[in-house]
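#lab-general

N.A. 3:47 PM
ok so I finally got the sequence cleaned up, no stray characters, all 388 residues accounted for. can someone with queue access submit it? mine expired

B.Y. 3:52 PM
send it over

N.A. 3:53 PM
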Amino acid sequence: MPLNIGDQMSIQHSVSEQQACTPSAASQRRCVSIGVTRVCWLLLLTAIALTVETQGQTANSVPASPVPANTVQSAPVPKTPSATQNPSTQSNGTSALPRSDDASSADTQGGLFVFKKEVQEVILHATVVDEQRRLVTNLDRAAFTVFEDGVQQTTTSFHREDVPVAMGIVIDNSGSMREKREKVNQAVLNLIRASNPKDEIFVVNFTLDSYLDQDFTSDINLLQQSLGKVSAQGRTALYDAIVASAVHLKNNPRIDRRVLLVITDGQDNASQETLQEAARRLQQENGPTLYAVGLLSDELKQSGIEALQTLANGTGGVAFLTRGLDEVDDITRAVARDIRSQYTIGYKASNPKQKSEYRTIRVTAQASGYRKLEVRTRSGYYSGETIH
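B.Y. 4:20 PM
back already:
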């Protein structure tokens, strides 16, 4: 189940529990094992039947039960460094089956089914600018070249349409933000108005704890109400809020393209998560693009600025720094244009994946009429991992 909507519902990591899942005629629910779909089990049963028939054996044996699937557990729990959360269900209570890291296919050899692993497509969201830092939105597929670990890859998909995104707006609600929230909230509302009207957005206000004050919605009135829930007190657990929000983004099964917008005037001083852990979560396979707005103040020191830049740059986003509140509105509008101008590029890694192995990514672009193009996308990912 997704995180419940309610006043001051704290986002926390959820604990995943493994339970056996047995399909019944009444529920007609799917039962999946880790990395294997129900279809694969049906193919396996067919393979066993064919083998038994070919060898003239009796069909008295029963195939082993599937490995129990991870089930969804979404009740908030106290913070713990090792707490994790599985993909959630849709709001109507129907389980959203998680995507496996590798799909399986079947082929026949000598009358027996042989299962083969298929590599999951890596999806990149790329922004292109010219020498004058102007957005370039008219490139075709042939203009791009993708490298993974220095090896050129073959692209398998390409889109440049303005498609909806799932977006988390994560705003510092500590005491130092009290006098800044009115202008920040207005700037965020202007970003929402300038975004795709079908975007699904949630709002998190955070201090020591993170509060999901509005779950996924396209209703600007609900989003405006949630932005007004300002307490402006407590310490700043920035990394915890980012990790929890990234998990919540992953748990939206309806939209694959994901964005986080983080606004703060201070640096982390209370998280259980570290900067390195937060960066790794964001750089898991097909993770979100993070945009950060740092409101420069005595609370936001150089180390905090560098942390925002590290988190944003690794995902293909941008860290904006400003001392003037009047500039925040221009920044959020620029973020909206950036999101709506991105290219979506997919490829399947030519080198077999190893779990938890970091892969570097570099994308270049060349096109007639442009002397030099700069492509901004994620710098890499941990293969075989998903946000949890």
